[in-house]
Amino acid sequence: MNQAKINPLILQWARRRLDLTEEQLAQKIGLGAKPQRLQVWERGQEFPTFRQAQALAHVLHIPFGYLFLSNPPTTALPIPDFRTLPESERGKYSPELEDVLNDALRKRDWLRGRRIEESQPPLPFIGKFSMDDSPQVISAAIRHALALPVPTARDVKSTDEHLRFLVRQAEYAGIMVLQSGYALSNTHRTLSVQEFRGFALTDPYAPLIFLNAKDTVNGRIFTFAHELGHLWTGTSGISNPEAVLPEQQTLAIERLCNQVAAELLVPASLLIERLQSRVLDLETFQDLAQEFRVSVFVVLIRGYETGQIEEPIFRQIYHQAQQEIREFLSNQTRETAGGDFYRNFRTRNGRLLVGEVAQAVREGTVLYKEASELLNTKPQTLINALQEF
């Protein structure tokens, strides 16, 4: 029987990278009753067959050739990491995040090449501003470029519709927007909201925003507006933005993008007007959150930042809101994979990108095989999915 003389150190590295025990990995490759087999492989006392080694690479989400390297590869995220994380978590990232990011870069590069080949001009708003510009100026520019009303939720009837509207307007302006809760369409590889909420790839020809679809809709709305701030300031990066007070954000760029998002979604002048002659209690801020179609925390923090609510009252209402959210989340069932496949397909890849790929297929500049690989699906499935474009 042919043995694959893998490097046991690589096997150990790859298993620990996924935070798997030897027993868990043995179970995943069909050796559940014999975890000791994996143990001797990791000690280099025996070697797996080539078929077993291929199964290991598949389960560990690494290229097969990695198993034969002399030393574990040194990997780094290809864009800045703006996440606010505990000290013990800084610099760490999962294979799911790495794969999602590399997939987005591949999509970005494809669309960039297509637009340059077609002699399309660069988008004028990408990187138009700097850290020295005010959140009000940047948010006004975003509103103008995306043709957004004041407030952005003025003409929508639900939070879901608010997110769809924002995404649609961004796509009309030439921005790719991808939303997925899984890595590479694999429902067994769930993305963690605790790890990241989204990222932005700034490019004058093919800017891209990715939203972690495991987040709440309110969370995605705020992240989306935050990532727009990154595009307009020309700062690619991975984020886990939350509606928090400015002093709670350690990175200046994240503070700025949070302020841009807050002003875009809940303009200060409009909020001040709405709060006049209102009782400053949780119910008032919940009503305003319903009007602006954002989380109550966004409205609360805006009220505090604009001087409309004093700190003791703010802290009290903020605590009450946290309690209600915790109770609400504890009663929610876990999200499961499902729903309309083709709608999910368009959301994962973004309508803008799917439309561009469909056009390229019709022109004959892209084959179905290449297109299906780009969109992480099978050729026959792609044929059906592109029919509406």
Name the overall outline: globular
- The average pLDDT value, as a whole number, equals 89
Which structural class should the secondary elements be placed in?
alpha+beta
Number of strands: 6
Please outline the major beta sheet: 4 strands, mixed
Q: Measured on Cα atoms, how large is the radius of gyration?
A: 23 Å
Number of helices: 17
The residue fraction in helices comes out at: 40-55%
Order of helices and strands: HHHHHHHEEEEEHEHHHHHHHHH
Order of strands, main sheet, comes to: 1-5-4-6
From the structure above, extract its key features.
389 residues, alpha+beta, four-stranded mixed beta sheet, two-stranded antiparallel ribbon, globular
